[in-house]
Amino acid sequence: MLRTFSSKKPIFDKILVANRGEIACRVMKTAKRMGIKTVAVYSDADENSLHVKSADEAVYLGPPPSNQSYLLDDKIIEAALKTGAQAIHPGYGFLSEKESFSNLVTNNGLAFIGPRGDAIRDMGCKIASKKIAKEAGVTTIPGYIGEVHDLDRVIEIAHEIGYPIMIKAAGGGGGKGMRIAWNDEEAREGFRLSKDEAMSAFGDDRILIERYIDNPRHIEIQVLADKYGNCVYVNERECSIQRRNQKVIEEAPSVFLDKKTRKMMGEQACSLSRAVGYDSAGTVEFIVDPKKNFFFLEMNTRLQVEHPVTELTTGLDLVEHMIRVAGGEKLSVTQDDIKIKGWAMESRVYAEDPFRNFLPSIGTLTRYVQPTGDKVRIDTGVVEGSEISMYYDPLISKLCTYGETRSEAIKNMEEALDSYVIEGVGHNIPFLRAILGQERYRSGNLTTKYIGEEWPEGFKGIILNENQKDDLAVFTTAIHILRNKRDATINNKMNNYEYKFEKFVTELMEKDYNICVKEIENGFLFNVNGKDIEMTDICWKPEQPIFKAKLNGEKKICQMINILPEGYGMRFFGTMFKVAVRTPQQAELFKYMPEPIVIDYSKFLCAPMPGMIFSITDKKAGDKVSEGEELCIIEAMKMQNMLKAPKDTVIKKICVKQGENVGVDAILIEYED
């Protein structure tokens, strides 16, 4: 439970939330609890979104692209003044770390629920922040402190400090505009892509170069500061599980830190905050090597995406503290008040396909059922029927769980993920579930290279062991029996329907499971290839996705996602499996079915995701291309993805133009062979 200040009067009567999605809903939740009315802003794409429905008022901004809606600071100020809002909370992303917006808010007589503009400026520039951090006694990463403007200088610096290097945008964050280079060729390519991506995402293509620390952990310190010089650190968050420099799973506290290191990192974070006159919630990010040496990475001058794990382990409502500090109150907590209670984890649930290199997925949430429980928290901006748009970040929700210990928090997260139903778009739950099940993750042996090391060839799905395969075969067979039982009852074909003894052949992953089933009190007794499995305490309604039961006394969960023309689409441990249940006679006849025709796509370059054609090769029909040659860049969800020639070939046809929007699997280029 979050500690609140219910006895205090509201600081503001009304605030405007200059954001969308889950963070807008999150801010509104605290504001409403404080008795403060809220104003939402929205684009055409978000007209019927949850954050609009959650607000007391809503103001239209413009078309879906961010630069025509959520980045229009003048329109947002106009909306605040028009509705009588006294303050603006920027959330994260969009305008939250834009110095000019913070100043514009205060210059119009409104309170900015965030830090002062000069603090945003100083910390928003990675070059300036590194200089200030060094002067404040904060340990920094070796590198070149200054802007880098051309390729020759990039190579020169790389040779001075040594490879590997990190090429990253001087402004912005969130993993965008960042590339690791291990040689000159990668440095040239990374510099160009980082500049383009940074300009697209932040409107700022300044680049800095620093030494890349190999095998680090990413650990950040939450700070809270007020306008009177008070500053506290609210412990750490472990954010080492990352993909493309984007956090995937976070937790608090870190299994790696001891009290001494935590104190040193926290005190340095507060020193930096005081050095820039910081006066809100913020996060100082560090990388930590295996010997617990830590180095300043950057400061995020906003509410962090993963702030819920800090709230769950401290009891503090960070949004409420931001609002009260913006209203001129002193911090109500001291450093001695900050404790660590239990363990919390956050899984970022994204609309992206882990089986296709995590490419974004867009569409309508045709079915959406969230897990529940007193140790489960979900921050989301969607409901069933919501649209996942190509215009914004594909985050569906932040799923958080709590436990007295890390093991309990992991167990609760596994159960929550198994109970989370999302249909209509691809999502990364299979990947999240696979991470949690790994012994390495459970042991706390984490680095920012974890995902690349564990899945060097890309994620192919969870690998079930033999016992798990038996469990899935039993689950699917039980569903088949219960559906047939329901159908027979509905059709009046059988009274007092009962399976006394029956045989099935259940096919899973090209293997047949010979199953005998007997109905018993409170469930079924299965014999799977000679192994007995007792299923009891069944919790399932026909055609509902979530199926819960005890298998030999242990609670298990699976999902029936759809009924296929031949079998069932089952989700188990987060991953989809096709499972067919047949009678022995049907199984025998199935052997004579013809093999399905496989379509050959090797002659085409297809779009792996929906997005906009940022660039397309200037080659024409009849031109030769070499293996690895850049052919196209697709921009989606503010990220640029380069597509290269898979082999030496000849172009037959260019099917798209620069600036064109394409869907997933759209043919971009056709080859001669």
UniProtKB/TrEMBL annotation:
Reaction it catalyzes: propanoyl-CoA + hydrogencarbonate + ATP = (S)-methylmalonyl-CoA + ADP + phosphate + H(+)
UniProt keyword annotation of Transferase present: no
Record domain Lipoyl-binding: where: 596-672
Species of provenance: Anaeramoeba flamelloides
Keyword DNA repair: no
Residue ranges occupied by any ATP-grasp domain in the UniProt entry: 130-327
Protein EC: 6.4.1.3
Pathway(s) it belongs to: Metabolic intermediate metabolism; propanoyl-CoA degradation; succinyl-CoA from propanoyl-CoA: step 1/3
Keyword set, alphabetical order: ATP-binding, Biotin, Ligase, Lipid degradation, Lipid metabolism, Magnesium, Manganese, Metal-binding, Nucleotide-binding
Name listed for the protein in its UniProt record: propionyl-CoA carboxylase
UniProt cofactor(s): biotin
